[in-house]
# Entry
Amino acid sequence: MKIRFMSLILIVILVGISGNVNAIAYCSLRDPVAQIAQLYPQKTNQLSIVKMVDDNTRTQVQLALPNNDLHFSELGQHTLYIAMLGQEALGYVHVRSEQSDWGLVEIVWAIDKNLRISNFVFQRCRSPQKKIAEESYFKTLFIGKNYQELKELLSEDGVTAKKKLLEKVHNAPELANVVLRCALKSLLLTKILWGEELEKL
Amino acid sequence: MLALKVIRYFSVHYLLFLWVFFSVPCYANFTENLRWSVDASARLNQNEALDNSSGIYALGLDTHKIFTSTSGDIGYGVGQLYFTKLSNYIPVPFLFTSKDDSEFIIREAHLNYTAGSNWIPNIRVGHFTLPFGLEESIDTNGRLLDYYHGKNLGTKLDWGFGLNKVVSQVEYSVSYTLGGKDKAKSVDGSYAISGRIGSLSHLNLVVGLSFFDGKIDNVVRKRLAFDWQYYWGTWGLLGELALGEDNNQSTGRQKEKYNLIELNKKLINSQFALYGQFIISDKENKKSADKLVNIGFSYQFNTQLEISMSGRKQLNNPPTGQKQQLLRVQMRIRY
# Structure
């Protein structure tokens, strides 16, 4: 019995090591009810749709955004939340984490039905620049923009923002880069993974 | 033998739970919005005080399901069922009958109804971690990291129901459970009432107040606790102070004090985490307080594979027996 059970554990471990990285990811809203209400105060409920972020998705992100990658914790099953007012969809909520010098930054994105950023809040951010990034002048640099418009703000290296954006946020340039990369990946993944289903709503 | 154990664990209570779990009205198929993973771990322990090497091997299914209707989410369910095998493990944990025993173990198995309006609390039913102290915001299930929840309260998980909610800048969770630990019933009048109210657990500064009143294994325990967490970049400093008393039929009433301080550090990509803990556990009837140091780390190779290690050492000389000295290594795969 002992040998058989140990063999089973060993097989599972070996399969796990050799397989693709597609297990459950942890990145999600800590409390969807309260956090979605923060972004959509008029919402009455939320509808969750869980999709798999796999190696294929990762490749699509790498192709669309050169020099970018998804953090290993970003692979796995992820939830897109639809903020509902009764039977009506108000918009979407997508949480993603992005690596920074201060650890992983988790941003909760509110996205409108035309896939434009409508607002965002930090779920986890250990950066001392966080307060600056929560001010309205910082947020307005991203709010209202779609994927293409945000991509135009990305410099040729693919990971930092162009000067015209950084000049406006001279006191929090590192966090601006993180927010920009996270916004682009969030919008891109929303379209790739949930796009079809959102069109049916 | 194995078949008997399966039958025993799939008892009436668990089947009732599953029936409730599966019969919630949904428009979607059960597999929609279902997250699941196979969770396998091997933990090796070297206990110097007992001069004993042992192992715990676990293979289980970890599931999370969001229930939805046409107007939105109704709630979610968590189900964790593990086949767990001991190998020369002493002292024998309460769930097992011998040092080489194997059992099916239900870890978390609960439903949380979340469809109430803004102020109506979520309602949780099932087998869940008691809301108390640091464990409420830092889940240690299946990890070497430990906040001594079970030791402090008499059990880590219990069957019952609870209310929980995040309201503006405050989150709370209270529960009434049966005190039967793995059994979904009260045993010899057992019960547990526990709760915690705190600031939002994802912020850089978190504080919380907890209470506990329960009778588990014929020990009446009362606790009040204060916990706190402060994060600065990739560093974290946190602590928990719990004061109270135990009333045991054999040893009588005695005051208890438990204090934990932890310093931790993560790499910026969160793959590597290191922590050190200092714990003081003081009982009125004991001559001196137990002082323990825990040092541990975990390394996440990818989404699936994690290796962790921890070492515990007692600093004071206990009145009887050897100083605690325990080394543990764990490999864990989630697939």
About this structure: The domain at 2-334 of chain B is CATH 2.40.160.10 (Porin). Chain B touches chain A through 56 residues (CB under 8 Å).
